[in-house]
Amino acid sequence: MKNVAKCLAESLTFLRDSGLKIDKTTCVGHSLGAHVCGLISNFLKFRAERIIGLDPARPLIKPGNMNRLDSGDAKAVHVFHTNAGYYGETGKVGHVDFCINGGKHQPYCQYTSNTNLCSHIWSICYLAQSIFQGFEPYAEPCSRRCPSGLRGLRSLRGRNLARYAVRNAIPMGMTTPMNAYGSYCIKDDQPPFCPTSPDSIGDQRCCLDYPPEDVDENTLRRRRFFS
């Protein structure tokens, strides 16, 4: 990871020297990539603006090791937890830690062949959804560690932001305030960024469409939409 981080740091430094506005940049990394974003800071002569870590990897990462993502790696470090304790890190990692559905297992992954891997990967789809203005998931302050109990705002997928203006809720992802701090929770039993109609936002790669045949129809989560 060090070699990758060093290469990226050199590229970012070159882009800054060529006119790139560093305060407009965000390093986004999933799994081990989240730790790579953190390691970049070791090779920069300036402070990175923001890092978004998508379920930072737990395997192969030693607790307390400097070669991992933490809140000192950028002005703002925001972390999504979707498989904490398995493929993903547990506990507090960044300035803001989003604990999604308890942070351990995602409910829409329960009928897949690998619940942990599905939960780990689907953090990417939450970020993808957050890019679209008005559809950002919102989360509310909660316990200090992830995984935690299933609590928090039930996601309305950003379609009615007025209903989120309670209990100091903040948006997840690209619009998370730079000065936000603490742990935030959200409950969402539907796959994020999964389109439900031809004109809705989303990507079918963020849908799940292979539940077993013997599962009751009322139990099934959102199916993939075929146009």
From TrEMBL:
<dbReference type="InterPro" id="IPR000734">
    <property type="entry name" value="TAG_lipase"/>
</dbReference>
<feature type="domain" description="Lipase">
    <location>
        <begin position="4"/>
        <end position="114"/>
    </location>
</feature>
<dbReference type="Pfam" id="PF00151">
    <property type="entry name" value="Lipase"/>
</dbReference>
<keyword id="KW-0964">Secreted</keyword>
<dbReference type="InterPro" id="IPR029058">
    <property type="entry name" value="AB_hydrolase_fold"/>
</dbReference>
<dbReference type="GO" id="GO:0016042">
    <property type="term" value="P:lipid catabolic process"/>
</dbReference>
<dbReference type="GO" id="GO:0005615">
    <property type="term" value="C:extracellular space"/>
</dbReference>
<protein>
    <recommendedName>
        <fullName>Lipase domain-containing protein</fullName>
    </recommendedName>
</protein>
<dbReference type="GO" id="GO:0016298">
    <property type="term" value="F:lipase activity"/>
</dbReference>
<dbReference type="GO" id="GO:0017171">
    <property type="term" value="F:serine hydrolase activity"/>
</dbReference>
<dbReference type="InterPro" id="IPR013818">
    <property type="entry name" value="Lipase"/>
</dbReference>
<comment type="similarity">
    <text>Belongs to the AB hydrolase superfamily. Lipase family.</text>
</comment>
